[in-house]
Amino acid sequence: MKPGHLHVILEGHRVPLVDARENYALAKLMIDACKVSTISPVARAAIQRLQVEAAGKVGRMHLKKFSALSPDATRLYVPLHSGELLQITADAIATVPNGENQDHYWVEHPGGEPLQYSMVDLKVELANFERLLVDTQAYSVPSMRWLLAMCAALFPYVRDSCAARFLLELIGKTQQGKTSGSQRHTLLHGLGSVKGDYSIAALAALGDFGLLVLDNKEHANFTQE
Fold it and tell me: Is the pLDDT of residue 2 over 50?
């Protein structure tokens, strides 16, 4: 973890060691283990001692959201509903422990809706992918449907491989399927609806969201911030 970002990993769950009233995970841990809440002076002293102990024993774990790519870009990690990670390479797909893997990644889904993975017939499911997410897009040029699918459905998993890139802007008249078409991809990733009137501060607070779709943004909204 980064300096100043200390956590306890218990039974597959991450508990931030941040002494704040909004840290309900730490409050639950203190109540379950010590029968006291985090707002009591005794508990706050205990939390500080726990922070000191953690700082002296901090490991090499790296916290990521949505997905993670190994430094050499040969291994992709995606969080699973089971609590493990799906590790994808050019040669194989396997499940590995979260945190205790080759690259020491702890990966979480930003919306709490990680992938439910199962073995399927790839030809059948790729056809369903095209039927549900590609063919439904309202584009006058058919090939552009696949451009959106690549940018919104596939590329977010490997976004760390290309930090500097163009923004994709969907242009068209109102009620032409721009929002609904984009939302198919946010729902695919378990990220809910597209984002509406979000301030810059609110967007910054989201952190790494994997795929961020902003609705009703005109040219005037595309400032550098």
Answer: no
Residues 9 and 196: their CA atoms lie apart, in Å, by: 35
Question: Which pair of tokens denotes residue 215?
Answer: 């609705």
Closest CA to 8 of 29, 24, 22: 29
Number of H helices, E strands in the chain: 6, 8
| CA dist., res. 2 & res. 25, Å (int) | 20
Contact between 192 and 111 under an 8 Å Cβ cutoff? The reply is yes
- Using DSSP bridges, classify how beta strands 105-108 and 62-65 pair: parallel, antiparallel or unpaired: parallel
**Lowest mean pLDDT, pick from 46-55, 167-176, 214-223:** 214-223
Q: Is the pTM of this model over 0.85?
A: no
Domain residue ranges in the chain: 7-56, 62-108, 122-221
Pull the structure tokens for residue 145. Answer: 């449907």
pLDDT at 217: 73
What is the per-residue pLDDT for 132?
A: 93
Quote the CA–CA distance of 213 and 182 in Å, as a whole number: 7
Q: Quote the strand ranges of 82-207, DSSP E.
A: 85-88, 93-96, 105-108
Cα–Cα–Cα angle for 137, 143, 149, rounded to 5 degrees: 55
Distance CA 80, CA 64 (A): 14
CB 51 within 8 A of CB 40: no
* Residue 140 pLDDT greater than 80, yes or no: yes
